[in-house]
Amino acid sequence: MGRLPGSWDPSAWGGPWVGLLLAASVLSSCLQPAPAQPILITPPSPAVGGDVSLAPQPPAQNVLLCKWFRSAIITDDNRRIFTYIPNPPAQSNGPAHTGRETAGPGCALNIAGLTLSDTGNYTVQMDLNNGPSSIITVGLRVYEMLTQPTVTPNQTQVLENGTFTLTCNSSPSADTLLWLRDGSHLVTDQRLELSPDNRTLTVLNVSRGDAGAYQCEVRNPVSTNRSEPSTVTVAYGPGSARIDPQGPITHALGSPLTLTCVSDSVPPSRYRWFHNGTDANETQSSWTFSLTSWAQQGTFACQAHNPDTNLTARASVATIQVLEMLPQPTVTPNQTQVLENGTFTLTCNSSPGADTLLWLRDGSDLATDQRLELSPDNRTLTVLNVSRGDAGAYQCEVRNPVSTNRSEPSTVTVAYGPDSARIDPQGPITHPLGSPLTLTCVSDSVPPSRYRWFHNGTDANETRSSWTFNPTSWAQQGTFACQAHNPDTNLTVRASVAVRVVALGTSLSAGAIAGIVIGSLAGVALVGGLVYFLLRKPGGGPEQRTPVRGPAAPAHNQGVGDDKPPLGKEDIQYSTLAFTSGAQKPPPGPQPLPAGGTVYSEIRKK
Length: 606
Description:
- By secondary structure, the protein is mainly beta.
- The chain contains two helices and 45 strands.
- The chain has six domains: 16-140, Immunoglobulins (Immunoglobulin-like, Sandwich); 150-235, Immunoglobulins (Immunoglobulin-like); 241-323, Immunoglobulins (Immunoglobulin-like); 330-413, Immunoglobulins (Immunoglobulin-like); 422-502, Immunoglobulin-like, CATH 2.60.40; 520-606, no CATH class.
- Strands 11, 13, 14, 17, 18 and 19 form a six-stranded mixed sheet that branches. Strands 29, 31, 32, 35, 36 and 37 form a six-stranded mixed sheet that branches.
């Protein structure tokens, strides 16, 4: 091996160096060792391929020379790595030098390209100028980057309550080893045993929960690695079996049925089906078949067997009853129309396979009461003392466990009435001569009533509910009557109204009278203004004028005494106008004014 730069080459050191080294050697042999000082390892956990520095602490400032040994003792010169003189820096390599070691400041030992063989004890001997020599030993451990471990099970499937063992195969430099199942760390208990180095895991009295994916994880200060999962299954069961759907089963004839045998078993059970004790040659967990005959009823059983555990379980379903899909029933009434307070009967015609029968009216279920009677099998419904509310659309509904069907509606009407009648508009009626009049006869009846009209007791030959006519003479007034008759109930009712025919001008409405009054007032105001104008005009005529009087009103000036001023001198003159409505004329002589019949006209002179 070549000499490293700065290393100690005795052949190159001549003259005073030889004497100096000898003196140092003699001096060191006479000095007593100083108390050991710590050595700082940087990094504290060196890894293979990396570098490390071993530096005495605190760094010595008066070192004459130092020697490093790959050993805990310094008496074997074959274990010497190098001798180092700090000033001037010079390194003399020893027999244990590998070419990777160099001296550093403060007598530090630097090792490059670490290998696992560099692990061990290292000792430094330092000779001081003014003190005893110092000898310090330190242990160095070189760590490798851990490779991925592997897990070896002694068996991948174990019987319930059995035992299995797992071994973690990893590098010996791993100083920590952990076990995991399904990604979670395992904690030892009475059933989990570990070898002293943790590399072997034994599981006793295996339960179903011990099945899973096992891994081991190895660690050292410079790396962590985890194995691939190793799966262990636990064989168990079947402890029991069942058939879905659970019995007893009722099923429609001609439709498919699926039976499923269910059991909990690892590995999955092997199945076999039986019908009424005979092997059906079916080996699937589910069996689908169509019930095409009554002979297929009976008891169905399944057998579940685990060949690994050698356990067998059986299950059976109670007798399967085959039922038909019910056809649509029909309803037969003994009559479609019944008299009020009468009786009617309905019969439901249905398959004998129906085990439930219901009656409905207008879509709602009927509840029996004192008026509704049912036969023992519910197929006949009798309605007593029929009321109007019993009319409607009747249906029967039949059911069995596999089907439901409902009949078409059968309508029953209830004949009743009429109880009364009336004529619209109600009387007494006053109607203008020559305008059309419509009279309507109203009655509640099923079926609808037949009508006939009468005028003053004489048949008018009108048979509709409404009669429209035009009174063109006084002879057409009088009493009008209608007759409503129900031929099914044989009930008849009558109604009448009095009609008075008047001339078109004799029957004025309040609006027409108001119009006449307003027009009259306007005329009086016009006359008053004309009179005032004539009195004011010079030479326009005599001063006195006859007071304005209304027709059929007594000539009476209200509020004027015997000592009244001459006409034309007073401020206000009042005239009374009285109006009578219609064609009636008042009797001769003074008459009291009707309420609201007095009108005042004001004439003012300036």
